[in-house]
C-alpha cells in the first residue's frame, strides 16, 4: 500500500513539474517568436520576473484545483476540463497580479494567444501522460489487489467495472460470503465465509477491501474493519441500494451519520451560490446601466409604432422551489388571451413582424436581466415555464420538478444543446428536462461562461429554433 501511495504522489509531482516546464518553455519560445514577428515587447519587466510570477501562480492554481489523471477512473473529458479550469484560473490570477504590481501588459493579444496555447499543450501532455499510465497498468504495473466481503448486485457491478479494462490496474482476488453465490461472476473466486477473511488478509497482500454485508452481520464486519485499519488496508462500505437507485449518488456526512443523496448539487454549497449570484448582479447591473437604456429606447419606440399595446410583456412563471414570479420580456405578440396557455410556434399569427425579429435575435428576452437583478432568475439556468405548462408536465414527465431546485435562467444548457424553442412532442420536453438536470448536477462557473458563449454564437449563427 505504501508503494502504491508513493507511486501516486510521484505521478502528481511529475504532472505538476511537467506543466511548469511546458509553461516556461512555451513562454520563452512564444515570447521570442512574438518579438521576431512584431518587433515589440508584450510586457514590462524582465523575463525571469514574469516566469517566476507565472510559475508561482500556476503552482498555486494546480494545487488548489488538484490533479486527477492518476485516478483509475479518470476520463479524458475530466482531464481536459480540469486542465481548462486550471489554465483559466491561472490566467485570471497571473494577469491580475501583473496589473496590481509594477509590471505592465503592452499586448493583450500576446497573453490571450499564450494562454490558449498553454491550455492546448498542457491538455496534450496530460492526455499523453494518462495514456502512458494506462499502458503501464495494463502490463501489470501500479496495480491494486482487491477483496470483496459479500456478493450483492452492487459488488458484481463493481467487479465488472474493475476487471473489464486492464488499464484500471485492479486485481480482484475473490470474495467472502456466507455461501457461494451462483449469480456472482464465475471468474471471481469464492474464498470462504466472512469469519475466514481476517486469516486470508494476514496471509495475502491486499490493498482494498469492499464490504456489502448486511448490518445484521456487524459482529463479523467490525473485526475486519479493525484489522484493515491496523494493517494499512483501505476499507470501503458498499451500500446495497442498486435495486432502487441506478445512477451516481452523492455521499455526505450529517454529524456522524453517513447519507447518500440521489445527485450531487454543486449549487447546494453556499460558496458556489455566492459566486453565481455575485456574477449575476455585476453582469446584469453593467448591462442594465449601459446597453439596456439604448436598446429600450429603440425597441420601445418600434413596438409602439408597429403595434398597439404595452412595451413590456409580463407573465407569471415558476422559479426556484416552484415559487411564482413575474417574468419580463419585450412584447413580441399582439395582445391576446392565449398568452398564458399557448406556446409560440414557428409561424404563429400572434407574432408581430418586429416581434418575430426580436424572437429570432433573442432581443425580447433582454428585460429578464431585471429579473436577474431582482434575484428571481440567474443568467444561466433552466428556462422558466408558464404556470399551466408546469402543472401539466409535472404530472406526465418523471423528475420534471427537479429543475426547480435551482433558479431559472435567461439561457441554459438545454437551449445550447438543441432543446430550445417549441416542444412539439413530449420527447422534446423530456430531453429539455434531462439537460436541465445534467446542468444542475455538473454546474461550474466555467460551464456558465461556456453556455453564455454558446448562446451568443447561436444568435450570431441564426439558430433555426429561435422563433
TrEMBL record:
InterPro entries: Bact_transf, EPS_sugar_tfrase, Undecaprenyl-P_gluc_Ptfrase. It is a multi-pass membrane protein. The chain crosses the membrane at residues 12-30, 50-69, 81-99, 111-129, 278-303. GO terms for cellular component: membrane. One of its GO terms (molecular function) is undecaprenyl-phosphate glucose phosphotransferase activity. The keyword Lipid biosynthesis does not apply. It is found in: Membrane. Keywords: Membrane, Transferase, Transmembrane, Transmembrane helix. Residues 276-460 form the Bacterial sugar transferase domain. Its EC number is 2.7.8.31. NCBIfam families: EPS_sugtrans (TIGR03025), WcaJ_sugtrans (TIGR03023). Belongs to the bacterial sugar transferase family. This is Undecaprenyl-phosphate glucose phosphotransferase. It comes from Phocaeicola vulgatus (Bacteroides vulgatus). The lineage of its organism: Bacteria, Pseudomonadati, Bacteroidota, Bacteroidia, Bacteroidales.
